[in-house]
Amino acid sequence: MKKVKVLVLVLCLLLSFTVCGQAVLSQAKNDIVILFTSDVHGSVDSGWTYSGIDVIRKQLIAKGNHVILVDNGDAVQGDPLATMTDGGAIIELMNTLGYDIATPGNHEFDYGMERFMELVEMADFPYISCNFNKAGKLIFDPYIIKDIDGTKIAFVGITTPWTLRSSTPKYFMDKDGNYIYGFMQGEGGQKLYAAVQKAVDEARAKGADYVIAMAHLGNVAEDAPYTYADVLVNTTGIDVLLDGHSHDLDQVTMVNKAGKKVLRSACGTKLEAIGYVRITAEGEISTGLYKWDNDDNAVEVLGLESIMNEASKKAKAEFSAALAEVVAKSTVDLLTKDPASGVRIVRNQETNIGDLCADAYRYISGADIAFVNGGGVRSDLRKGNITREDIFKIHPFGNMLCVCEATGQEIIDALEFSVHAWPEEFGGWLCPSGISYEVHTYLDSSVQIDEAGMFVGVNGEYRVKNVYVGDEPLDLNKTYTVASHNYLLQNMGDGYTMFADNVYTRDNVMVDVQVLSTYITRGLDGVIGEEYAESQGRIIFVEEK
After folding, report:
1. pLDDT tens digit sequence for 395-407
2. Is residue 536 part of a domain?
3. What is the helix (H) or strand (E) element at residue 365, kind and residue range?
4. Which residues contact 262 (CB under 8 A, 6 or more apart)?
5. What is the CATH number of the domain that holds 483?
6. Residues 5, 295 contacting (CB under 8 angstroms)
7. Are residues 366 and 243 located together in one domain of the fold?
8. pTM for the complete prediction?
């Protein structure tokens, strides 16, 4: 029998951080527990599963606790169930589970603004955000106050302004390319901080005893000035910040602008943990995680009984047979992470799976060069049989293959933008095919970006040097054909502005999962072999001048 590491951990506190004496005495007769999820990415049957959330909540209620369930964004996109229903199946499951509040993350917008608003209408719970706006007018309520036995808890929603580049920029624009939607970006973060402070102050003025920020901000340095730390050190009045976006599990105590302690809690991704905030009747606040440390999901390991079991089964039944079909096999592991450390590298290094995905675009298109953004490669591909579901997990976005004409100058600008955040991660890190180059890491980046994180230009020496297309040096004045998907090329995804207005020789040819599937089944005759055992040396790092 497979060893189960988690049985002793079920419903046990693994991590707990407490701040005492900050808040007023709670009026509630029993403890108030706020359960939160984030970055589920459609993986409702991973980790704890939605069934696990249901069981944990029921046990907490049975012990006399008041329980509130909230989500911090990136729920409706990711796994095939989400992709194949444009998020609809996930909203229906969230309704069944009984979420109380949600905050939109950057991936809530991946199906387009119109579809997101349809999902909002489908939801039996409200979305909140103090900074998501259209022409300066907030789309949702900035906060909601819950009254629990006389204790008023305000929930303030915050969505990362980098949504403008990490989702599809054109979704936030009018037909003339002008932004009409925004997230209080700009002014070095001051607009965002002011929006958060306004919401907090209004909630306090309405009698809120506690303020819980539901944030999709993250802790990645490249996301400054919009990280959770940036927000907390520039605001006052928040007791706890529940965070998502960077998929971490950190439980942190910080000091706000007024010198008071604030708790920050994150719960990872794909239900590997369920976060909680506990407010006792004595006014003590603590945060922690119910962590699931097992490859199999909680329903399978623990035999959890929940209404969510049947609901999830019903939602997936329609697609299960098609997704389970074996379409190819691999003789090697293709990984997004370093196998030794487990650290994700597909967003700042060349990887064998990135090479594979980029090669697929060049194979299908016949273009000189192909790129895939590292942030769009979402899952590993393990040795053995490959199912349709495996391929869906790698490319869950439904992006379409395009080919444009681009000058050598535009191409080197794209490469330079790709490496501007290195060694930090960047979702727009380019996985290349048909092109090789050096990255001189001893040079500081000279890339200029605007307040939305979009590429403006390069004002200084390029880090990228010795670029070759095939066996020939890149000619800055020559025109090449470049293949990728509509997200990156046409829609300026991840901030790539240099290709949007170019001539397109092929437009919306094939969806991303079909691109990869066709390459593996036809281009590789159904077998990924030893040629992909390692990355292929297309990106060389030069550390010294």
Report:
1. 988 888 999 999 9
2. yes
3. helix 352-365
4. 19, 232, 238, 239, 240, 241, 253, 254, 255, 256
5. 3.90.780.10
6. no
7. no
8. 0.75
